[in-house]
Design a protein that fits this description.
homotrimer; alpha/beta; Molybdenum Cofactor Biosythetic Enzyme, Chain A; six-stranded mixed beta sheet; 7 helices
Chain lengths: 176, 176, 176
């Protein structure tokens, strides 16, 4: 198989200590299986909210594992231990503010505290990194909003050609 | 009384010279009295558009006065003397882009020049700092939009438990 | 004639090599002729996606040519050669995030890949610089959205008084 590699990175002090099950990371993996129709495998990690470790793990997933897409969950709020956006920004060459804007906008339809989320997205070489919220229901709302743009973004940075189950998510590629 | 402390900071060359009454700062204080139902006191200052002085005043209100929330008004436009967002960013460890996005979005319903506002919000230790526009009517629109998320944000950074007059603003706290 | 100077800067490797006609830059010039009713002249350049050259050209148009407004097209995506926002940020003293937010929001009505655009706007001394997308149809949607705020922004930074064909774009200036 010569498919894509997707990184799923759960960032949570408590989940990393085994204090609860990582429902969020598992939900993201399920979502990818439901939505992506081209072949792929998942690289999955659960780590605590330590900025240095988040950066190292993102770099490893991108540069060593060769993931074309990394989806993080957790650590995007205003609390002192929430450092996922900072780590993301540190390892990316380009930030894509439109992802955070749209994810906050759709999340605002659910809860007014969506504005507290600092989630963002960016490019490291040939890897698109997207920060997702912590809860499965919020993850779904955010992924449904941004995923139509993900395959074309991966095209533009030189990654594999991703296709989606069109009944679920219709990937958009502009005609040349 | 063991209530919260809120900083209200008017940033305006002309108001600080006494050339006109600071209607904006007063409006913010009235708004807080109308909307917040838990005990609080207000620390109020009017200063000119000097970046160094804005930074010092924000730091003083946060670190010395112990304000859990600072609301600024003025200095967020594109003119050379408008430096409030720069000062805010300099004293904050974390920025919360969702506040600026939502405030501009609701202000756009009023005036197309809302996109000229560079207002933002951020966290300095246990203090949430929010930049508001200069005019009372615009302040109201912005505070109505973001205030439902303010009490929970203050919870997350370790501040006092704020409650609101629910008929006016319904503070949202997610169930755990 | 003592009119305004507007810079139109097409940033495209292929257009700069003459591989295709620069329809985007021409479209922007047509748009300005259709919409702006006060006197102006256009300074027009087509250059490749080289960050250093983009910065030099923006600085030259602003500082030497005296343009009060520079509209760029191209180079705002996630691809490795897309560096227009970086160049814009480097030469500006103030960024205006509301422009990018609104342009992405209106472009999202057209295509879900609008979130991939990193377009922004900022101020260099007395010059407003706005990044536009690459395609004429997207340029129109973005300019229609932000242009009502452009003349007042130019007032605020000390530029010439711009008026518009009100049937086409209604410039907004708040009453004092």
């Amino acid at each position: 198989m010569d498919g894509a590699k997707f990184g799923v990175l759960t960032i949570s002090d408590r989940a990393s200590r085994g204090e609860y099950e990582d429902l969020s990371g598992r939900y993201i993996i399920e979502y990818l299986r439901e939505v992506v129709s081209s072949p792929f495998e998942v690289v999955y990690r659960v780590i605590p909210d330590e900025q240095g470790l988040i950066e190292e793990t993102l770099v490893h997933m991108a540069d060593v594992e060769g993931c074309c897409l990394i989806l993080t969950t957790g650590g995007t709020g205003p609390a002192p231990r929430d450092v996922t956006p900072e780590a993301t920004e540190r390892v990316c060459q380009k930030m894509l503010p439109g992802f955070g804007e749209l994810m906050r906008q759709v999340s605002l339809q659910q809860v007014p505290t969506a504005i507290l989320s600092r989630q963002t997205a960016g490019i490291r070489n040939k890897t698109l990194i997207i920060n997702l919220p912590g809860k499965p229901q919020s993850i779904k709302v955010c992924l449904d909003a941004v995923f139509p743009a993900v395959p074309y973004c991966i095209d533009l940075i030189g990654g594999p050609y991703i296709t989606t189950e069109e009944s679920r998510i219709k990937a958009f590629r502009p005609s040349k």
